[in-house]
C-alpha cells in the first residue's frame, strides 16, 4: 500500500487563523501542541479541570487556561490530549453537551474512536494528528525550527475540509517541517497497539528479562546479566535508530554479527511469530480493547497486580544498584 506524504507547502496554516483551538489536557502532548500552536500564531485555550494543578503552569507559559466545558463552548477545534481511558467520560459529560455546530474533534491516537468509546454526531469533523514522538521532542524540535513527523487521518468529513484542517494543524505543531503521513484511524490504532505490545514495551522487556533470567539461573552474576541483557540494549538501539540494522552491524564485531544472524532467528522463531499474529488478531477484533476497557471500569485490578509483580523482579534491584554507579545517567 503506498502512502501519501505531505510537507509544509501542502499545508495552509491560514486555515487556522480564525479558529479557536481548545487543547484538553496539559500533559506530554497537550503542553507541546498548545505552545507550538500559539507560537505559530493560533488562538489557543487550554481546557483544565477546576481542581487541576496545571492552571499556573499554563499561565506561566503565557497561555490562557479555562474550565473544560467553558473552553469547549467557544472552540472550533477540540483536541483530546487527555489520557485515552479518561476521554470517553470527558466527552460525554463536558464536550458533547457544549459542542459548537461545525466544530472539529481532534485526536492524537485513534483508540476511542476506532473502538466506539466516543461516537461524535455526524455533523462534526473528526480528525487525527498524531506526532510520532513524545511531547517533549515535539516542543524541543519546534523551537529548533524542526519538527516531529506526524500521522493524520480523517474519520468524519462533514465540512469537506477535514483533511485540510488536519494538515494545517500538523503544520501548526511543526510536524509538516518533517513530513505528514496520511493513514486511517484503524491503521494507526491497530499498528500502535501491536507495536507497543509485541515489540516496544511487551516484546522487548520480556526478551531482556528472559535473557537476564537465563544467565542468572545458569549461575552467572546478576550484575553481568544486567549489563549484557539490559543495559547495553541502548547502545544497539541508538545505532539502529540512526542508521538501521545495517549501521548497528557495521559497529559490532564480526563475532557478534555471526551470532546475531545465526542465533537471532532461533530466539524469535515461528512460534513467536504465531503468537504475534494472535496478538494482532486480538487487537483487530476488539478483544484487547474490551479487556482494557473493562479493566478500567473495574479500577484496574489486574493492571495493578501485574505491575506490582513486575516491580519486584530482580532486574529492578540489580539495575538500581548498577545505575547508581553511573552518575551520568539521569533518571
Ligand atoms: P498525559 O498523561 O501526559 O497528559 C494528560 C493530561 O490530561 C494531564 O495533564 C492530566 O492531568 C490531564 N487529565 C487527565 N484526566 C483529565 C480529565 N478528566 N479532565 C481534564 N484533564 C485531565 O497524556 P499524553 O501522553 O499527552 O497523551 C494524550 C494523548 O496523546 C493520548 O491520546 C495519547 O495516546 C496520545 N499520544 C501520546 C504520545 C506520547 O508520546 N505521550 C504520542 C502520540 C500520541
Ligand atoms: Mg503507542
Q: Brief description of this entry?
A:
The protein is α/β, with parallel strands linked by helices and 331 residues long. The chain has helices at 28-39, 55-60, 68-73, 87-95, 111-114, 135-143, 162-172, 185-200, 202-217, 222-231, 233-251, 254-267, 270-284, 287-297, 301-311, 314-324; strands at residues 5-6, 20-24, 43-48, 64-67, 77-80, 104-107, 125-131, 150-156, 180-182.
Q: In words, what does this structure look like?
A:
With 331 residues, this protein is α/β, with parallel strands linked by helices. It contains 16 helices and 9 strands. It has a 9-stranded mixed sheet. α10 packs across α16 (314-324). The radius of gyration is 22 Å and the shape is globular. The model has no long low-confidence stretch (mean pLDDT 97). It binds nicotinamide-adenine-dinucleotide and magnesium ion.
Protein topology:
Elements (H helix, E strand, L loop, with lengths): L4 E2 L13 E5 L3 H12 L3 E6 L6 H6 L3 E4 H6 L3 E4 L6 H9 L8 E4 L3 H4 L10 E7 L3 H9 L6 E7 L5 H11 L7 E3 L2 H16 L1 H16 L4 H10 L1 H19 L2 H14 L2 H15 L2 H11 L3 H11 L2 H11 L7
Parallel strand pairs: 2-3, 2-5, 3-4, 5-6, 6-7, 8-9
Antiparallel strand pairs: 1-9, 7-8
The chain binds nicotinamide-adenine-dinucleotide (NAD) and magnesium ion.
Give the key terms.
single chain, 331 residues, alpha/beta, nine-stranded mixed sheet, binds nicotinamide-adenine-dinucleotide, binds magnesium ion
Amino acid at each position: 500500500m503506498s502512502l501519501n506524504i505531505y510537507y509544509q507547502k501542502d499545508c495552509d496554516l491560514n486555515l487556522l487563523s480564525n479558529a479557536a483551538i481548545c487543547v484538553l489536557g496539559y500533559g506530554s502532548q497537550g503542553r507541546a501542541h498548545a505552545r507550538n500552536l500559539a507560537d505559530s500564531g493560533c488562538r489557543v485555550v487550554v481546557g483544565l479541570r477546576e481542581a487541576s494543578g496545571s492552571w499556573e503552569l499554563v499561565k506561566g507559559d503565557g497561555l490562557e487556561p479555562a474550565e473544560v466545558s467553558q473552553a469547549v463552548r467557544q472552540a472550533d477545534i477540540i483536541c483530546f490530549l487527555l489520557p485515552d481511558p479518561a476521554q470517553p467520560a470527558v466527552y460525554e459529560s463536558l464536550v458533547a453537551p457544549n459542542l459548537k455546530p461545525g466544530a472539529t474533534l481532534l485526536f492524537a491516537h485513534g483508540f476511542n474512536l476506532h473502538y466506539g468509546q466516543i461516537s461524535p454526531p455526524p455533523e462534526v469533523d473528526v480528525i487525527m494528528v498524531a506526532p510520532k514522538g513524545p511531547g517533549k521532542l515535539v516542543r524541543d524540535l519546534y523551537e529548533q525550527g524542526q519538527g516531529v513527523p506526524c500521522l493524520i487521518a480523517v474519520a468524519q468529513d462533514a465540512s469537506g475540509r477535514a483533511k485540510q484542517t488536519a494538515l494545517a494543524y500538523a503544520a501548526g505543531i511543526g510536524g509538516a517541517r518533517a513530513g505528514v503521513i496520511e493513514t486511517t484511524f484503524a491503521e494507526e490504532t491497530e499498528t500502535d497497539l501491536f507495536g507497543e505490545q509485541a515489540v516496544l514495551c511487551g516484546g522487548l522487556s520480556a526478551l531482556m528479562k528472559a535473557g537476564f533470567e537465563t544467565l542468572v539461573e545458569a549461575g552467572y552474576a546478576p550484575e553481568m546479566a544486567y549489563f549484557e541483557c539490559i543495559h547495553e540494549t541502548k547502545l544497539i538501539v541508538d545505532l539502529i535508530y540512526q542508521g538501521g540494522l545495517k549501521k548497528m552491524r557495521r559497529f559490532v564485531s564480526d563475532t557478534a554479527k555471526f551470532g546475531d544472524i545465526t542465533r537471532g532467528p532461533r530466539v524469535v522463531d515461528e512460534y513467536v511469530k504465531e503468537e504475534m499474529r494472535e496478538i494482532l488478531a486480538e487487537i483487530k477484533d476488539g478483544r484487547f480493547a474490551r479487556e482494557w476497557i473493562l479493566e478500567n471500569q473495574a479500577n484496574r485490578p489486574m493492571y495493578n497486580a501485574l505491575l506490582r509483580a513486575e516491580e519486584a523482579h530482580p532486574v529492578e534491584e540489580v539495575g538500581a544498584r548498577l545505575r547508581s554507579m553511573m552518575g551520568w545517567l539521569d533518571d
